[in-house]
């Protein structure tokens, strides 16, 4: 009898150890059958946690997303530098729909995003000249994001991973983009204010004609973080038939 108990304890200890040796954090739940409703709910529940990053897996936060220094040349030769940049809001995105079929996931969401930093900029935007440096805050209201991820199984050390081999994120501006930028025209507060008003009145055209390099930069950072996640978490912890 005693032997049986010892044996039982060893087996259950092994079993419990085995089943808890998961790579993914415990807040990540699976969706048997990968049904859309479950996926939507799971992603809604997971996003606020995932957004903070998973340091033990080397996965950086996406909210806040920090970039010490970004230097961009926008269409028309307009130069912008952003120091100590942060973007917040991804953790609160509204997930509208998610689907998964034939190794491809599609997700539609709306996000309110805020970018902040210390900027330096010079050049022409549409009809105005800018030559300034100061504080920058850009609020993007109800940005529509459509993400498409193609997956592919990869086996490493006997473990199967469902890796993101192709990730595309398309965007469409929604309600508004609000620029709050100080000192757009160095040493001239009246002109700075007039230029800022112009930017805000023409936010849609400005975002569409000049925003692409910034969006590309953000998409590339977020894509890398998502790709990394699927590279380190085994398939069977995420995908259940
Ligand atoms: C960025 O932040 C660091 C640390 O808070 C600060 O020392 C530095 O002056 C900041 N850079 C700019 C351009 O404001
Ligand atoms: C975005 O902000 C608007 C109000 O400005 C709010 O109605 C909406 O629920 C917000 N959406 C998200 C995804 O936070």
TrEMBL record:
Q: Which keywords does the record carry?
A: Biological rhythms, Signal
- Protein source organism: Trichoplusia ni
What's an example GO cellular component term for this entry?
A: extracellular space
Stretch forming the signal peptide: 1-21
The Swiss-Prot or TrEMBL record describes its family as follows: Belongs to the TO family.
Pfam families, per the entry: JHBP (PF06585)
InterPro entries named among the record's database cross-references = Haemolymph_juvenile_hormone-bd, To_sf
| Gene of this entry | LOC113498145
Biological process, per Gene Ontology: circadian rhythm
Name assigned to this protein:
Circadian clock-controlled protein-like
Checking PANTHER family in the record gives: PROTEIN TAKEOUT-LIKE PROTEIN, RE70318P
Give the superkingdom in one word: Eukaryota
